[in-house]
Design goal:
Shape: rod-shaped
Low-confidence stretches: none
Strand order of the largest sheet: 2-1-3-5-4
Distance between the termini: 117 Å
Largest sheet: 5 strands, antiparallel
Helix content: 10-25%
Number of helices: 1
Order of helices and strands: HEEEEE
Oligomer: single chain
Length: 164
């Protein structure tokens, strides 16, 4: 027949540390029981955490700021690409930001000191620079890469060198 554990002992019949129950009459470590006739002190639940007001509002503000930043970056990229040679039209002036071997033509003001070439004709959907023979000093052909935002295009610019 088994007997209930005695005060100051754990379920295995061994005394707890120092043979005493835990603090404030609570059961001590290893399953100690309070002395007979004493009730363990009851603890109340901790108060609920204060509600976080405005947490969702902060996230909304951060999302709006992020969206605005992305839109600004896209707009700046679009405006910068407007000066590229693929947007040139007859009568526009160009400058070469690249080299003779690997040109990088950019549209500039015709009256400016940086203007080097003037566009005479533009031929879309071709890379045949022979179309510029007899019309201009040189033919410049370029093919833009296809990306997720653009299908890419190819064109030839018939250009004359601006004599200074």
């Amino acid at each position: 027949m088994t007997h209930p554990p005695q005060p100051g002992t754990n379920p295995y019949g061994q005394p707890g540390p120092y043979g005493q129950p835990g603090p404030y009459g609570q059961p001590g470590p290893y399953g100690q029981q309070p002395p007979q006739g004493q009730q363990p002190q009851q603890w109340s639940a901790p108060p609920p955490a204060p509600s976080r007001r405005g947490g969702k509002g902060v996230l909304k503000i951060l999302k709006i700021i992020g969206t605005v930043a992305v839109l600004i970056a896209v707009g700046i990229g679009y405006l910068l690409s407007q000066d590229d040679a693929d947007h040139a039209e007859a009568g526009d002036c160009l400058k070469n930001n690249g080299t003779q071997i690997s040109p990088d033509l950019q549209v500039v003001e015709c009256g400016g000191a940086t203007a080097e070439f003037k566009v005479v004709q533009v031929h879309q959907d071709t890379l045949d620079t022979a179309k510029c023979e007899g019309i201009s000093d040189a033919g410049y052909q370029e093919q833009t890469r296809s990306t997720r935002r653009s299908s890419g295009k190819k064109f030839v610019l018939c250009i004359d060198e601006i004599k200074k």
